[in-house]
Amino acid sequence: MIQKLILFAALFFLLFVTAAFPQEVEREPQKLDQFGRIAECDFGARLDKLMVTLQENPGYTGAIITYRGADELPSTYDEPADRFIRRQFAFRNFDVSRVTFIDGGFRKSRFTELWIVPPGGDLPMSSDSIPRPTLPKKTTFLFDRQTVDDGYFPPYSSDFDEYLLRHVKAKFDKEREEAEAEKRKVDPDYSRTENNKEFSDEFELADPRFSWFDAKFAAVLARERDFTGVLVYYANGSKYDLNAVRSLIDEARSRMATDAGIPESRIKIHYGGFRYLLEVEFWIKPKAGKFPTATPDDPSDYESEEETDDIS
């Protein structure tokens, strides 16, 4: 009897202590992965791992800390570092409300941390951040780099047809007609015009010819009066009409200058020579800086591509 009373008293005491002093809830977040600059497919695989982990643990949430790289072009300094990740989640139809995005500021190079947070847990904190980089005041620097036209034309109608050489445009027109004929064999109602309209509407570009337009570049020039802008453009002269391309760059300069409220003379234009794709570099030259040096490609490195393009 005494043993039963002792056992009962022990159980009662244990229940009392448990009720009075509940076990501490796990609050520490757990780092699932971390990585620097990696290929897009590898990036997607790591996000998939995070999503699977959250699906297997319904009460948990995710946290992603993104760090911008101080070694990247200044044009990216103010871009949302999580934009690409949000697009990846949207593409996978994942409920992004289960993920908290944390801006970690800058590190020497781009870096990303993936975390999982238990129910009621604390969010992770950023670490090892460095001050935001400042723009050089005495040396010329590359602010941005953009591909104006990636060189892909058929089967879509290109927004850059008017900048092609006549024989190149005629060749692409022929290829488009052949591609459309093949499509109609499968779908008699197929219309390249309607298909292109849907493709354009998806990106909602007011004028696709200026999708590479960098308003931030001109804004820096407006803010820093001792800075001069230089647009160095490159083009494949065997495909593009270089005079027409120059007109495109001139119009872009005019638009940027007007938007920023600065004279067009504050932005110089320089043809940098051959590159297989139509590209533009945005340079900023301080008062004491040197004029940027163009870095064209060697046309002989692309002879195989040129030969393929010439096959009809």
Radius of gyration using CA atoms only: 29 Å
Give the number of domains.
2
**How do the strands line up in the largest sheet?**
1-4-2-3
**What is the arithmetic mean of pLDDT?**
85
Q: In what range is the share of β-strand residues? A: 15-25%
Number of strands: 8
Q: Please give the alpha-carbon distance between the first and last residues.
A: 103 Å
What is the tally of helical segments? 8
SSE order, one letter for each helix or strand = HEHEHEEEHHHEHEEH
Percentage of residues in helical conformation: 25-40%
Note the main sheet.
4 strands, mixed
Shape: flat
> Structural class, from helix and strand content?
alpha/beta
The residue ranges in which pLDDT falls below 50 over 5 or more consecutive positions are: 17-23, 198-204
Would you mind describing this structure in some detail?
The protein has 312 residues and is α/β, with parallel strands linked by helices. Helices cover 37% and strands 20% of the residues. The chain contains 8 helices and 8 strands, in the order αβαβαβββαααβαββα. It has 2 domains: 30-117, 60s Ribosomal Protein L30, Chain: A, CATH 3.30.1330.60; 141-310, no CATH class. The chain has helices at 2-20, 40-56, 83-91, 166-186, 192-203, 215-223, 242-260, 303-310, and strands at 30-35, 61-69, 99-107, 111-117, 141-149, 228-234, 267-273, 278-285. Residues 17-23 and 198-204 have low confidence and may be disordered. α6 (215-223) crosses α7 (242-260). A 4-stranded mixed beta sheet has the order 1-4-2-3.
